[in-house]
Amino acid sequence: MPTVRDETWEPAVTVDEGLSRRAKALACTVPLHELDAHKGKIEWADAKAYLMAEIALHTIDQVAIAMDFDTGASHQHVLERVQRFVARQAPQRSTQEHARVAAWVLDSLINLGDVDRSFRRPYGAVNSEGVYSVHTFDFKLIEERRDDTGSLYLRASDEALNVLVGALDTDVESAQVAAEVKLDNLIRRGRLADAKLVAEQARIRTIQYGEMIRVQLDATKRNVQAVDWREKVPKLLDDALAHVEERVKAERAIAKYMAKARDEAEEPVRKSRAAELVDIVEDCVRRHIKLQTHLMGARDLFREQQDRQQFSDVPQRQAIDLYGHLLMPALGLPVSDVSGPLGRYFTESVGPVVRDLPDLSTLVPLLLRPAPERSLFAGEVPDLDLEKLEEQRRFSDGQWEQANALLNLPDEVRTLSDLLDEAATLDPELPELVALLALHAYGPQTGTALRRGDDQVLLAVHASDRLDTQGFEGDDLFLTTARLVDRATADHLTRTAETTVGDNR
Q1: Which of 86, 159, 194, 353 is most deeply buried (CB count within 10 A of its CB)?
Q2: pTM of the prediction?
Q3: How many CA atoms within 13 Å lie on the side-chain side of 328?
Q4: How much of the chain exceeds pLDDT 70, in percent?
Q5: Is the CB of residue 60 less than 8 Å from the CB of residue 141?
C-alpha cells in the first residue's frame, strides 16, 4: 500500500552532541586498526603472525600503569614489558624481531612520522542552524615529555585511557565506584579471574582521575586566569577529596579480605590470582594517597602561582606558527576564501616600503639629459688563460682490480664484514670501495648487465647479523656472484637438461 507524504512535513535535523562524541571516540581506535592493516608493509619481518592491535593495547596498558601523578614511564621499561608479550604471540621468532616489533608499535602510537605527532580524523557535526559540517579531530595516544633533568618519559593521553578501558563516554567517579562494587561482589563469589580484570580497570580509572587534576594544576602554573578557581576547580577538589577518602577505605577493606583469601587458599592458581589482586588493589591505594597529597596542596599552589604571576612581567606575544596556524588551515579552504587572509598576512608581514619620490629640481635635468652615444663595438674581448683540469680519481686502477678480485665469488658466499676485514689487510682505503660496490649490488641492474654483455653479476642479500667493522655499521650482507645467460643460451641449457633427464630414464 503506497504511503502519502504530508507536504508540510520537513526533515528534522537536530544537534546531536552524542553522535559527535561517539565519532571522536571511534576515531581513537583507528590507529590501532591501522597497525594490523599496515603490518604487511614491514620488510624486515613476516608480521602476519602478530596481532598489532593487541600489542598496542598492551603497550598503552604498560605506559598507564607506570604513570604517576607527575611522572611517566621510561622507554626501556615499556619496551621490555611489551617485548615479553610479543614473544608470546610468536615464540618461534628471534628475540631481535620481538624487540623490533615492540619498538615499531610504540613509535606508531607516538606517531613519530607526523610533525606535531598528532592523529587526525574527520567527523561531522550539526550546528544550531541545522547545517552539517565536517571538522578535524586531533588527538594523541602516547606523548613524549621531558622532566626537569631533560630526560624523556612517556604518558598515556586521556584518549588512550578511554581506548584501553572501553569507557568512551562515562563519568570517572561513578565508573570508579561501580567498578569497585563489582570487584567486591566478584571476590565474594570467588570469581578471581573476572575480579582481576575489574581491578585493572579500576586502576586505570584512578590514573584517569589523577590526570584530570594534574591538567588543572598545570594550567594554573601557566596562567591562573585561564582556570576557574572561583567555582569549577574548588568543587572538583572537594569532590575529589571525598572520592579519594571513600575509595581508600573501600580498597583497604578489599585488600584485607583478599590477603586473607590468599593466605587461606590451597590451590596454587587461586593463591596466585589472589596475590595479583592484592598487588593491584594496594597499588590503587598508593595512587589514591598520593593523589590526596596533591589535592590538599592544590589551594596553596594556586595562591603561590597567583602571587608569582601578579608581580611578573607582562607576557610576550606568542609568535605565529606558520605551519599550524596558517598553512594547514589555508589548505582546507577554497582559493576564493583564503586569498584575502593570505594577502593581508603577507602585506603586513613584509612591512612598509620606502619609495623614491623625485622632486622637480631632479626630474627636469634627468629628462633634458642628452642620450649617450652608442659604440658599434662592445670593446676588446680579453684572451682568457684557461687551465686544463685533470680528472680527480678517488681510487686507483690497482685498488679497483683488488676490489673486483675480492668480490669475484662464483662458487661461494661471503659476508661483507669478512670482505672488509680482508680488504683492510691489503689497503687501508680498500674497505670503502668494497662497501660501495656491495651496496650497489643490493639492487643489481641485471638488465643493464645483460645489455652490456656481462657474463656475471654481483648479488647482495640481507643477513641477520650486525655489521660493525672497519668504521662501517649497520646490517651485514651476504655476497655472491651469479652467472648471467641470455634467452637463447637459457633455452639451450633447458633443452640439454631435459634431454639428459630423458636419457637417464
Answers
A1: 86
A2: 0.45
A3: 11
A4: 77
A5: yes
